[in-house]
Specification:
This protein has 1202 residues and is an alpha/beta fold. A 5-stranded antiparallel β-sheet has the order 1-3-7-6-2. The chain is globular and about 100 Å long.
Length: 1202
């Protein structure tokens, strides 16, 4: 990716941008080319960017002007205008420090506490607050725009003139993409909250950004990139007020922006130099990379290694060796010296001048090219003028064809998608075309995305009711629907899911008699193990169900293999030997299944290929077990289960929907499992040595944060910076290996895995565990020799043992037994280690000596492209593996699924090493990294991000729930009401006795919106505001008031907490669904209609929510009891119950208790009080009918839940 994004926090985080800026002449304009800073150490000062800068000061700042540190401090540090120092809208929120929170809680302790009790309480407070992360305001978004590596290399070695032109192409591309962001991405939010922020997404007048150029990577390689830091402050088109940017589209658009930026930059390079571009394959795990023709991969590789400092340190050690011994070290000694260099401390990035860097880069490139690098660069950039496309050069039928191709490609990897996914793929598929202008490219990409949308199936419901014109964008869409938020799928995806659900409901499949099943469940297996109750129950239900498509769900370590083995025995008793066959999404998983069950297995892709080529199919009465089914794609499952249905076989999907899912369009396994009320599920975890870990693993599976405390209490979690955690994870894994344990080292990214693999190998060489005298280079820059553990990355059935029983699979672990001079390696499996657990729970390693399986020779081409070191793996590689111990490197970007899988691999222990920062290619920590982060705060965020994909059918339900919920409709109602009544409330304020200046100050205040909401609430309580407000204004002056609107809000709230009147004269509040104050005296016909339509929908929604909960016997309805048979009482019961249902839907309460967790905001507290009153009313009805036996349980439910 050429664009990445990180959040920047308020405060002094902006200083990160200034660390490497050259101390240049302060009067020098920033629009000067990079060459003006050629001789100075550091990088050029920042420059202003974006249309929003015109609104700063009085227009003094122009795009391209230099950014001073003082200006940056005002804008990014405090949220103020960098010229006038006036606040841009609301100030950044400030949050209490850890020390302040501790002091405040200690001060609130009861003074009567004994010293011992107080000491314990203080210790508990300190522990809790230390574990909490301090919240920080978002100051902006740091977008990093990088040029492709081939262009960076060309820029690095070219003469100053060509360097300047490449930099200019880069700057123009960045400016054009930022302008695109202003049109299509940037927005802010206003109006009432819908739970996750304000409900209306409105356009902004432009972005305020600063751009800082950097030249090199931390390793000192050429890496021309620009940090574009976009201020969180933006002025809205709707009302001209300053608000915060909506972060949702900023995150959602990153990949599409990256693809667009790469294409736009390529266009500029072709226009300037006439260069051509080509797609180069980067391996089966990566998308092709576009590179400039004529820039060889050897040169790119020279400047791409992450371990260049290892080369430098190795050269230093060799020179030292020669000085000491008077001779050059042997090849074996050089390997040891390189291993020593690998373990050396990673060097700090040095701030150097561009002239110094360029001189070094030219020297290195000249050696690699075998000719003068600058002359070579001049030749590459000397081309004829190219032919460029205009938008109208592309026929509409071609656009339609590409649109269909886009949907086909996106649909292979995702079950659902949004416009940004289509835009990203549209940019990829048009990357080979060169356009005359950015406008031409943008038009074509948008047209392709439009065409893709037309052939997609829309899952998001259309707007349920119309929105007034003031709440519509220029294209007619409603501001209540975020731009590009519509979710799509394909007809084929949805049809496949429908067919899978039909097969899961089909009861015409083969079965096993209950007597046979009972005999198997009561008998031990070959190892003397008896089935647990949950295993026996699941086996019975699967065997006798008759379902053509069945499922077995089980968490990690729940004994799915044991249950499947028993099922195989039962099935073969009834249907004969060989009647059970196995499939799995990967060849390795298929082999594990074959080894565990003793049946014939195959991976799903190969089986389908065999079906197409050889006619392979299933037989009547067969049981087809598909293991690790959460990793299987929906379309693949549909094809296979169709053939099974035709043949009269039964398919059993086995897996865990909480674990990792398919890299293809998935979600089917979870959909089928959740569609049934009687899904067979294993609940007892057997894998772990320690009982507490069984429970804790299930807590992780469900994303429950108390599990973090459990792992912390058992010292299974360590935290620190990324490099320290990498060291800690590696050292712990190494210690376990040295003790003879089977241990797995798991990291989040392929880059982390490569780093850990390199370190592991270096360590093994230095301690003489490995003594390679010859090695081969692998695709990631590491090397392997005799004794190394490696992993193969591509299935190849032609690479077999002599006996032919074993072959090379993607994900297989091997030991290198020989290295050939031609780059081939000989590999074999290592069966020589294992462990046993003593009665006291301790672990003893048992070494049987090296015992290898049959050997296989891997060709040099396979080794170079498809072999990695195998000491560390990703969570995807680890799923399905069971070891003695696991050591897991966790980053803030991890997901619940990857964390859960990684933390359940080890039988005896699983340790997490939590990086509190994100790896960065710069010297200083990124300001987005939380300095107060803890393991608990990082892991809490990880558990909240499930990382799993919903099926298209489940997405339909989720979308209907979101856009039809009371949370959404109530927020829309209140936002429209505020606009419709704005002039009325402004008139009331002006006539309340305030001076003209005070009245205008209140109306312009940010607190005016909350004040008008309070006035509407008071009016719904029948208060006469024309008389009340002047009385409240006259009660006390406003001489010391910072915000008159906020003061009035407080006074109105206190005076109108109860409905007007008393006794029989008191009228009930005029509330929608018992919660939302009605808007009265709205004269605008369009506004009135919009409000009435939403009120109708809200009332209908409440009825639907309550009816559904009662029909499903939802746990929270126990507190409601049963309605009275008396019609009047039943109506009163229903009215109160509707309020509770409305509250739950508005605030998305999912807990079993009727009102859920304590309210989080002032508005929710008011609604919670109303819902609690309604619940108390229900309790009163139950008490009146307590003599009826069936109602006693409802009363107890109320007592439990209140």
């Amino acid at each position: 990716m050429t664009v990445s994004m990180r959040v920047m926090s308020a405060g002094d985080g902006y200083k990160y941008l200034l660390k490497t800026v050259a101390a240049a002449d302060g009067d020098r304009p920033l629009s000067t080319p990079l060459t003006r800073y050629y001789m100075e150490e550091g990088t050029p000062p920042g420059r202003w960017l974006g249309a929003g800068v015109a609104a700063l000061g009085k227009g003094e700042i122009q795009v391209g002007d230099r950014v001073s540190e003082h200006q940056l401090q005002l804008l990014m540090g405090t949220g103020h205008d960098p010229i006038t120092d006036q606040p841009l809208g609301r100030a950044f929120p400030t949050y209490k420090s850890q020390e302040t929170r501790i002091e405040a809680r200690i001060a609130d302790l009861e003074p009567t506490m004994t010293p011992g009790a107080k000491g314990e309480a203080v210790a508990q407070i300190v522990a809790e607050e230390t574990a909490r992360s301090t919240r920080r305001a978002v100051a902006g978004f740091d977008f990093t725009f990088s040029i492709p590596k081939s262009a960076s290399v060309l820029w690095a070695v070219a003469d100053a003139g060509v360097q300047a032109l490449i930099a200019d192409a880069h700057h123009r591309a960045v400016a054009e993409v930022v302008a695109f962001m202003e049109r299509e991405v940037a927005a802010t939010r206003t109006g009432a909250t819908a739970g996750d922020g304000a409900v209306a997404q409105v356009d902004v007048t432009g972005l305020i950004a600063t751009a800082f150029d950097h030249f090199d990577s931390r390793a000192g390689d050429p890496h021309l990139h620009t940090h574009v830091v976009i201020s969180n402050k933006a002025r809205t088109v709707l009302d001209g007020k300053w608000r915060s940017l909506d972060g949702r589209p900023m995150h959602a658009a990153v990949v599409a922006l990256s693809e667009l930026h790469e294409a736009v930059f390529a266009d500029h390079m072709t226009r300037t130099f006439g260069v051509s571009w080509e797609a180069r394959e980067m391996g089966h795990d990566h998308n092709p990379a576009w590179a400039i023709k004529g820039v060889p991969e050897e040169l790119i590789a020279e400047f791409s290694t992450r371990a260049r400092h290892i080369d430098v340190e190795t050269d230093r050690l060799i020179a030292e060796y020669i000085a000491t011994h008077g001779r050059r070290p042997t090849p074996a000694a050089i390997m040891k010296l390189r291993a020593q260099a690998t373990l050396a401390t990673r060097p700090e990035k040095q701030v150097r001048s561009l002239a110094d860097l360029t001189a070094e880069w030219r020297e290195r490139a000249t050696k690699t090219l075998g000719r003068d690098a600058t002359t070579w660069a001049r030749h590459v950039t000397d081309n004829d003028k190219p032919l460029l496309l205009r938008a109208d050069d592309v026929p509409l039928d071609v656009i339609g064809e590409i649109g269909r191709s886009v949907v086909e490609v996106v649909g292979e990897k995702r079950s659902t998608w949004r416009r940004w996914n289509l835009m990203a793929e549209a940019s990829r598929q048009t990357m080979g075309w060169r356009f005359a202008t950015m406008q031409d490219r943008e038009a074509i990409v948008a047209m392709v995305a439009d065409a893709a949308e037309l052939v997609s199936l829309r899952l998001t419901p259309p707007e349920l009711v119309a929105s007034p014109v003031v709440f519509r964008r220029s294209d007619g869409s409603s501001v209540f629907r975020p731009k590009s938020s519509t979710v799509f799928t394909s007809e084929s995806q949805l049809a496949a899911e429908d067919r899978l659900l039909e097969r899961a409901a089909n009861l015409a499949g083969p079965t096993v008699p209950p007597a046979t099943v009972e005999k198997i469940t009561r008998s031990p297996d070959a190892d003397g193990r008896m089935l647990g109750d949950d295993q026996a129950d699941a086996l019975t239900r699967i065997s006798v169900s008759g379902r053509m498509l069945d499922v077995l769900v089980g968490p990690a370590g729940a004994g799915k293999t044991t249950a499947m083995n028993a099922l195989r025995r039962a099935w073969e008793v009834e249907h004969g030997s060989g009647s059970v066959v196995g499939l799995a999404p990967s060849a390795v998983a298929a082999q594990v299944l074959a080894d565990d069950l003793g049946i014939g297995t195959e991976n799903t892709a190969k089986w389908w290929q065999n079906h197409l080529i050889h006619g392979t199919t299933f037989e009547a009465g067969q049981l087809v077990i598909i293991d690790e089914a959460s990793l299987a794609g929906t379309l693949s499952l549909d094809r296979i289960t169709h053939l099974a249905q035709v043949a009269g076989a039964k398919v059993l999907l086995v897996g865990d929907y909480a674990q990792l899912q398919s890299v293809d369009a998935g979600g089917a396994f979870a959909m089928i499992a959740r569609d049934r009320a009687d899904t067979p599920e294993l609940v007892d975890v057997h894998r772990f040595t320690h009982a507490w870990e069984k429970t804790a693993s299930l807590e992780l599976r469900h994303g429950r944060t108390p599990a973090i405390d459990t792992y912390l209490a058992h010292e299974r979690i360590t935290d620190g910076d990324a490099e320290a955690m990498t060291d800690a994870a590696y050292n712990a894994w190494r210690a376990d290996r040295d003790a003879g344990l089977v241990s797995v080292l798991i990291a989040e990214t392929h880059e982390d895995v490569t780093t850990l693999n390199g370190r592991a190998r270096a360590d093994l060489i230095l301690n003489k565990t490995l003594t390679p005298d010859h090695e081969v280079e692998l695709r990631d820059g590491t090397a392997a020799g005799v004794g190394d553990t490696i992993i193969t990355r591509l299935n190849n059935r032609n690479l077999r043992t002599l006996a032919g029983r074993d072959w090379v699979r993607n994900g297989d672990i091997w030991i290198v037994t020989a290295v050939g001079d031609d780059g081939t390696i000989t590999i074999a499996r290592d069966y020589g280690t294992g462990t046993v657990v003593r009665d006291d729970g301790t672990i003893r390693a048992r070494r049987r000596g090296r015992r290898f399986g049959g050997s296989i020779v891997l060709p040099a081409a396979y080794v170079a492209e498809h072999v990695d070191l195998g000491y560390a793996v990703t969570a995807y590689r680890a799923q399905g593996v069971t070891t003695d111990t696991a050591h897991v490197l966790v980053e803030p970007t991890s997901t619940r699924a990857t964390f859960y899988v990684a933390m359940t691999r080890g039988r005896h222990s699983n340790h997490a090493y939590v990086a509190l920062d994100r790896a960065d290619d710069h010297t200083q920590p990124h300001p987005g990294d939380d300095p107060h982060a803890t393991a608990r705060s990082v892991l809490s965020g990880v558990l909240q991000h499930s990382g799993t994909e919903l099926s298209a059918r489940e997405t339909i339900v989720a979308e209907q729930e979101q856009w039809g919920s009371i949370a959404q409709l109530a927020a829309e109602y209140e936002t429209i009401a505020a606009a419709a009544q704005h002039d009325r409330w402004a008139t009331l304020i002006r006539s309340s006795g305030l001076t003209d200046e005070q009245a205008e100050s209140a109306i312009e205040s940010e607190a005016f919106g909350p004040l008008t909401a309070e006035l509407r609430r008071a009016e719904s309580n029948h208060h006469n505001l024309d008389a009340l407000l002047p009385r409240l204004v006259a009660a006390r002056g406003f001489g010391d008031a910072d915000d008159i609107a906020a003061v009035l809000h407080y006074r109105v709230e206190r005076a109108t907490a109860r409905p007007a009147g008393s006794g029989r004269a008191r009228k009930p509040a005029r509330l929608i669904a018992g919660l939302i104050p009605q808007a009265h005296s709205v004269t605008n016909t369009e506004m009135r209609a919009a409000l009435d339509e939403r009120e109708t929908l809200i009332e209908a929604r409440v009825d639907a929510v309550l009816e559904a909960a009662l029909a499903e016997n939802a746990p929270w309805t126990e507190a409601l009891g049963a309605p009275s048979t008396d019609r009047r009482r039943a109506a009163a019961w229903r009215k109160a119950a509707r309020v509770v249902a409305a509250y739950r839907d508005r605030y998305r309460v999912t807990e079993d208790a009727p009102l859920g967790a304590p309210p989080a905001s002032a508005a929710q507290k008011i609604d919670a009080a109303r819902a609690r009153t309604a619940l108390d009313r229900v309790r009163g009805f139950i008490a009146q009918m307590s003599e009826v036996p069936q109602h006693s349980q409802g009363r107890e439910g109320v007592e439990r839940s209140l």
